[in-house]
Amino acid sequence: PAKEDLSHLGYIGKQGKRGKFFVKLVEVISKDEYKIHKVVDKSGNRGHFYNYKFDASTAPSDDDPLRLNDCFLMTATPVRHEINKYDGGKNTYFNRITIEENKGGT
After folding, report:
1. What is the mean pLDDT of the chain?
2. Fewer Cβ atoms within 10 Å of its own Cβ: the N or the C terminal residue of the chain?
3. What would the 3-class secondary structure string for the chain be?
């Protein structure tokens, strides 16, 4: 089958520059000792991260407050821009994630 054309997609943020990003959680991959959280921004650009924390003033009481399809504002550092080996799309790996505000699912 023909692959989807992902040439219109870019990276999220500038590598090494901490900022605020509004994204949607589209997939969570659970492994034995960690979870990979995959997100997209409003333009469809893709990113992922492993660990996160909530801003202490807005922290919910749930054990795992992020749910699939939640849209949220995060403060993060894009530490690596990479090309996906499977589909050739661009991905951004984020580090030091703080969830500022979770707007919930769509």
Report:
1. 86
2. N
3. CCCCCCCCCCCCCCCCCCEEEEEEEEEEEECCCCEEEEEECCCCCEEEECCEEECCCCCCCCCCCCCCCEEEEEEEEEEEEEECCCCCCEEEEEEEEEEEEEEEEC
Q: pTM score > 0.85 for this model?
A: no
pLDDT tens digit sequence for 10-57? 999 999 999 999 999 999 998 888 889 999 999 999 999 998 877 655
Q: Are 69 and 62 in contact (CB under 8 A)?
A: no
Which tokens go with 46? 């893709």
| Integer-rounded Cα radius of gyration of the chain | 14
